[in-house]
């Protein structure tokens, strides 16, 4: 009775609406109240068509009950008479439709000629009752009584998905020949995939993959999506990706690195260092884990814009974790290859670049959204200024991080081709045409990342629907998992909650995560605004009336209609907002962000009377406690939504529930499915579109933005309409088109489910790993153009004479600027690094064991640094800084002497090795007191040998492992040639400037250091460009107003910025360091630009040494001698602003290293006001903010003249204790 009552309620509701709104104006009780009868009649025709279509979807019991009530009315009035007639009319149409369906199905099953079937189908009438209104009216009562009898109804054939319900949208030929319309595979992804059946077959080591998603609240279960702007679809994606990758048979372990948060304002799970989200076997190291690492203050949750100063700290911790995990896996007899580091978003992309540069592994990236694109859209909106954008979003820092990620990434995954063309195409580091050329003819010195379109994956395990079988899953489960002899197969693994309990997600033969639950969608009650729970064992009224029974299958061969027996609680939360919750639901689900464009959707709904009449709008905008306590952007959007609801008087038609859980999401999608509604995503730019795919999995047609991911999704799933998100009328028209066309709704609903497995996680991970493997094989097997400076140099091209020989008979031109001693054959041998071998897929048998190794990372026994437990490095910016750095360096040496030989001391300088030795001798320092010299801005690492004369260069040797690491994507010859062209290019030097030069070569004047010193040779990994005052004036005056000297522009820094952009756009990857050198006799500054390989810098050299010799980064102490005394910065005065002569000051101070900032009592450059105005601004740009608020007690300030030995000794003692 409960179902029948609710069924009748639905019919009564629709019939009442039809009588009230759906009849023409001639039936209006008061015609004087109809201002424009023609317009009203046009709207009512839409209403009438819609309401009749809805009633046609319902069971006959409700129609019969409505007719009985009308005929037995005590006061037989006009409305009851019309109600009786309408009831019979709709019933007759339904019966006639069922008859035609049955005839059509019978005809299609008969063995008759195809043309005969088509002719017969043409004659079947699905829209007319066969009886005119005039003929039907007088016989209505009698015919209906005869048909209904005593209340029993004859069973009717159910509408088939490929039958009459879709006839308007499908051709007869397609109904006769129903075939598979599987979406085509992504051409580019397929092109990169290995052609073998299993590209990982025969692999000995398992794969260890590191994913990085830095910001937001990340946990495995009960994700708080929408809690804040940083916890959105990306969080859900990375967690599900980690789980899915761990199930791949070739993958043994996946670590998702994110930030450790111990803020009492958030859940305690975010403070757990490790959380297992999928484990193949109890006690095994394999599976998927969320690993939380310190990044900034632990006890405060920071939004992503405030995490930029802590990026290197997170990278340092990530390097340490990855290295330790490789060792741990090897000791557990499950050796794994660190296969790839995958960064998600700009901040994690920079972290991945830093980690891959130190570990020498493959880096891939997924952007999710891009800074340049966001900047364009925000500026186009006209609601916020560029200064406000910079202050709020730190957009320049984000864009630079994305550029840095492009420099190091081998592959960038995108969800759509549009993202490549319209978003990544805005960046200096990517050019689609150049990328295609470089893939055809690869050159070592030039690189563009490979952009690969792979549809995003979707976790179906928590969806309360049944879906088609996934062919990718069957293929993957047929492959033997990694270390199957040690652990059980991956298919038996179970996801684990943070507390160790097993979650409900499982694997079945029918598809990933599909559980055979009883999932009957509940019924909406007959009274008020609430939802009435059905009795035990009852089917959902909405599903019963709108859907096929469980025994029926869709065109894809699956049953969507499996129901739950009670209404989900979230439906009740939604229904309490609505006057009539039976109406079709137009659903939007996103966080309240301006770019999600929710206000335009509300406007489209409010301005269209037809939409307001036949549908409800449900806005699920994350979770909120109080609007005033939300972030400013979210507060603004919610306020605008409420104002629009009020201005259009949408109360009772719009729902905006305050809270929902992760388990409610599937039920939320099922509400528009049950009410034959629509899902909408009209974001201004949607880079991913996961919600569009989720809606399709639930059989919900979709209206989505034409900007971004939904374009490709619609081409694959064919389940909705694309619209211009800024056109509210187009949005409303698209919604009405689907709502008022039953056959179109059915077609979109079925098509989405039919093709949904194109977005399964099995398919996504299979393609992703095969693309990475294909790219690795392509890089190692493809023939590259190796015209580079190595071995035999092309002396003619460099303008060098025939081989210059030194006294020993060796080639002097191959010296590093002629200042480095020659190496013997024994010294040139490259020691094997065990963990590096593991990372580079070398066999375990290739790793020699040594008694000097303290860990599998290994220590090189013939250098003094191999036996140290701490490293103290003093920054040295050049010869003009030697005197100011002398006292600090001497005190560091004294501190090392008190450490029982456990602390090593070195310098990080921009000079060459010989020049550095000469400077040390000039200021009275002994070379033998040092253990390591990082020179040429990180292009060289020289180490003191354990035996030999440490007081002379012959007792030192270069680190050849470092040379191999930084040689990646570096070709000095090509870079030198392009620098020469850029110096002579009119894009850098304007015509008036060129006229000033006269006959003088611009190369001689602007880039004098490119002229080779034939007696000294050149350095293979270092180029210096010198910019004197005249050169800076020329270049500064030709940068399109961006760096005008004397007008407040930063000449030197702008020249470097422009040069960096030009190199990136041409595919050259280099690290640029600006050095400001005061000249003698005046207050002018000589600028030097140091170019090194992208993996070479002073800060990266520190991390390489720590990684190579098994030292934690906390055991490294950096002493920075700044050029200017600190000044108070910030509103609260807690920050100090310090400046240096080099642009890498922030790199040296950031991270987890202990830093002592040695401060001068007065600026060493004298009065900066006497300097060129442009370079005075450059000096300002070479400053950074430092303070306990950012870095805690890790950074300490000391005066350059004070004795800092005690502080260094205390730090050295603590570092040694931590190392032990």
TrEMBL record:
InterPro entries: Glyco_trans_1 (IPR001296), SPS (IPR044161), Sucrose_synth_GT-B1 (IPR000368). This is sucrose-phosphate synthase. Plays a role in photosynthetic sucrose synthesis by catalyzing the rate-limiting step of sucrose biosynthesis from UDP-glucose and fructose- 6-phosphate. Involved in the regulation of carbon partitioning in the leaves of plants. May regulate the synthesis of sucrose and therefore play a major role as a limiting factor in the export of photoassimilates out of the leaf. Plays a role for sucrose availability that is essential for plant growth and fiber elongation. Residues 810-832 have a biased composition (Polar residues). Residues 577-751 form the Glycosyl transferase family domain. It comes from the Eukaryota. Belongs to the glycosyltransferase 1 family. Keywords: Glycosyltransferase, Transferase. Its EC number is 2.4.1.14. It catalyses: beta-D-fructose 6-phosphate + UDP-alpha-D-glucose = sucrose 6(F)-phosphate + UDP + H(+). Pfam families: Glycos_transf_1 (PF00534), GT-B_Sucrose_synth (PF00862). The keyword Glycosyltransferase applies. Residues 207-458 form the Sucrose synthase first GT-B domain. Residues 150-197, 482-537, 804-835 are annotated as: Disordered. Residues 487-506 have a biased composition (Low complexity). One of its GO terms (molecular function) is sucrose-phosphate synthase activity. It is an enzyme of class 2 (transferase).
């Amino acid at each position: 009775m409960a179902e029948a009552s609710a069924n009748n309620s639905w019919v009564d509701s629709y019939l009442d609406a039809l009588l009230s709104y759906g009849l023409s104006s001639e039936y209006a009780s008061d015609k004087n109240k109809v201002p424009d009868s023609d317009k009203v009649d046009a709207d009512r025709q839409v209403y009438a068509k819609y309401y009749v279509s809805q009633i046609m979807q319902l069971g006959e019991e409700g129609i019969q009950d409505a007719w009985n009530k009308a005929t037995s009315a005590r006061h037989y009035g006009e409305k009851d008479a019309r109600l009786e007639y309408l009831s019979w009319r709709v019933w007759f149409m339904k019966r006639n439709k069922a008859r035609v369906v049955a005839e059509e199905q019978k005809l299609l099953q008969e063995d008759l000629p195809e043309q005969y079937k088509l002719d017969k189908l043409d004659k079947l009438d699905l829209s007319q009752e066969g009886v005119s209104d005039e003929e039907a009216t007088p016989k209505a009562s009698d015919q209906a009584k005869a048909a209904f009898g005593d209340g029993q109804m004859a069973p009717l054939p159910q509408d088939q998905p490929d039958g009459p319900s879709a006839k308007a949208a499908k051709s007869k030929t397609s109904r006769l020949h129903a075939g598979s319309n599987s979406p085509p595979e992504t051409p580019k992804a397929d092109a990169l995939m290995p052609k073998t059946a299993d590209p990982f077959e025969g692999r000995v080591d398992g794969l260890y993959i590191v994913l990085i998603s830095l910001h937001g609240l990340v946990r495995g279960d009960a994700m708080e999506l929408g809690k804040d702007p940083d916890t959105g679809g990306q969080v859900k994606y990375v967690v599900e990706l980690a789980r899915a990758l761990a199930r791949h048979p070739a993958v043994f372990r996946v670590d998702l690195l994110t930030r450790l948060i111990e803020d009492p304002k958030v859940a305690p799970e975010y403070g757990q260092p490790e959380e297992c989200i999928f484990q193949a076997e109890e006690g095994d190291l394999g599976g998927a884990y969320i690993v939380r690492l310190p990044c900034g203050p632990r006890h405060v949750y920071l939004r992503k814009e405030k995490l930029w100063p802590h990026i290197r700290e997170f990278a340092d911790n990530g390097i340490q974790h990855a290295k330790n995990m490789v060792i741990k896996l090897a000791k557990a007899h499950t050796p794994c290859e660190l296969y790839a580091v995958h960064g998600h978003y700009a901040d994690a992309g920079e972290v991945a670049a830093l980690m891959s540069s130190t570990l020498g592994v493959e880096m891939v990236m997924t952007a999710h959204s891009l800074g340049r694109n966001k900047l364009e859209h925000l500026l186009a909106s006209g609601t916020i200024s560029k200064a406000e954008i910079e202050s709020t979003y730190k957009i320049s820092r984000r864009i630079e991080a994305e550029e840095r990620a492009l420099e190091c990434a081998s592959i960038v995954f995108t969800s759509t081709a549009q993202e490549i063309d319209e978003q990544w195409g805005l960046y200096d580091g990517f050019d689609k045409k150049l990328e295609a050329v470089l893939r055809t003819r690869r050159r070592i010195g030039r690189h563009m990342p490979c952009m690969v379109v792979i549809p995003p994956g979707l976790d179906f395990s928590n969806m309360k629907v049944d879906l088609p079988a996934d062919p990718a899953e069957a293929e993957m489960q047929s492959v033997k998992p990694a270390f199957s002899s040690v652990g059980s197969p991956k298919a038996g693994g179970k996801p684990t909650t943070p507390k160790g309990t097993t979650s409900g997600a499982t694997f079945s033969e029918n598809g990933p995560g599909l559980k055979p639950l009883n999932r009957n969608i509940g019924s909406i009650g007959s009274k008020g605004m609430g939802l009435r729970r059905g009795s035990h064992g009852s089917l959902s009224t909405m599903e019963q009336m709108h859907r096929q029974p469980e025994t029926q299958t869709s065109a894809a061969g699956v049953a969507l209609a499996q129901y739950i027996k009670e209404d989900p609680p979230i439906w009740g939360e939604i229904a309490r907002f609505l006057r009539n919750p039976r109406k079709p639901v137009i659903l939007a689900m996103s966080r309240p962000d301006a770019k999600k464009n929710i206000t335009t959707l509300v406007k489209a709904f409010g301005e269209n009377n037809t939409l307001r009449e036949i549908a409800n709008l449900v806005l699920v905008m994350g979770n909120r406690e109080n609007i005033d306590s939300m972030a400013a952007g979210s507060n603004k959007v919610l306020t605008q939504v409420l104002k629009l609801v009020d201005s259009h008087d949408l109360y009772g038609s719009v729902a905006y529930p305050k809270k929902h859980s992760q388990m409610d999401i599937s039920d939320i999608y099922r509400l528009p499915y049950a009410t034959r509604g629509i899902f909408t995503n009209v974001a201004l730019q949607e880079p991913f579109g996961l919600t569009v795919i989720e809606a399709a999995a639930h059989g919900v047609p979709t209206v989505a933005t034409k900007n971004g991911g939904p374009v490709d999704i619609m081409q694959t799933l064919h389940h909705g309409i694309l619209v211009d998100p800024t056109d509210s009328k187009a949005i409303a028209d698209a919604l009405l088109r689907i709502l008022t066309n039953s056959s179109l709704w059915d077609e979109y609903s079925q098509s989405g489910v039919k093709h949904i497995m194109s977005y399964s996680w099995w398919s996504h991970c299979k393609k992703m790993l095969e693309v990475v493997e294909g790219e690795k094989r392509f890089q190692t097997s493809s023939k590259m153009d190796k015209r580079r400076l190595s071995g035999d140099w092309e002396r003619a091209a460099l303008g060098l004479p025939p081989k210059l020989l030194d006294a020993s008979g060796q080639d002097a031109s191959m010296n590093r600027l002629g200042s480095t001693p020659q190496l013997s054959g024994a010294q040139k041998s490259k020691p094997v690094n065990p963990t590096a071998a593991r990372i580079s897929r070398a066999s375990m048998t290739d790793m020699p064991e040594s008694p000097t190794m303290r860990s599998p990372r290994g220590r090189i026994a013939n250098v003094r640094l191999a036996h140290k437990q701490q490293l103290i490095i003093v920054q040295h910016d050049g010869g003009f800084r030697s005197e100011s750095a002398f006292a600090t360096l001497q005190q560091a040496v004294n501190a090392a002497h008190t450490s029982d030989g456990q602390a090593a001391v070195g310098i990080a300088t921009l000079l060459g090795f010989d020049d550095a030795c000469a400077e040390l001798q000039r200021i009275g320092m002994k070379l033998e007191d040092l253990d390591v010299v990082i020179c040429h801005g990180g292009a060289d690492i020289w180490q003191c040998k354990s035996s030999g004369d440490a007081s002379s260069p012959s007792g030192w040797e270069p680190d050849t492992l470092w040379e191999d690491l930084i040689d990646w994507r570096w070709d000095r010859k090509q870079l030198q040639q392009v620098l020469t062209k850029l110096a002579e290019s009119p894009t850098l030097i304007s015509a008036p400037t060129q006229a000033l030069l006269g006959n003088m070569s611009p190369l001689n004047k602007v880039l004098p250091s490119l002229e080779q010193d034939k007696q000294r040779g050149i350095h293979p990994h270092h180029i210096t460009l010198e910019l004197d005052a005249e050169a800076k004036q020329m270049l500064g005056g030709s940068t399109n107003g961006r760096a005008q000297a004397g007008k407040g522009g930063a000449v030197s820094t702008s020249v470097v910025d422009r040069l960096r952009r030009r190199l990136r756009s041409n595919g050259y990857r280099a690290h640029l360091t600006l050095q400001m050198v005061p000249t003698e006799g005046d207050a002018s500054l000589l600028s030097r630009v140091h170019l090194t390989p992208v993996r070479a810098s002073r800060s990266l050299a520190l991390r390489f040494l720590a990684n190579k010799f098994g030292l934690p980064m906390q055991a490294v102490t950096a002493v920075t001698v700044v050029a200017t005394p600190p000044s108070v910065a910030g509103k609260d005065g807690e920050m100090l602003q310090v400046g240096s002569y080099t642009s890498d000051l922030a790199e040296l101070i950031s991270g987890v290293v202990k830093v002592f900032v040695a401060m001068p009592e007065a600026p060493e450059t004298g009065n900066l006001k006497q300097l060129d105005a442009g370079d005075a601004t450059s000096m300002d740009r070479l400053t950074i903010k430092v303070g306990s608020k950012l870095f805690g007690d890790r950074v300490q300030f000391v005066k350059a003249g004070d004795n800092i030995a005690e502080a260094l000794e205390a730090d050295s003692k603590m570092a040694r204790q931590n190392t032990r």
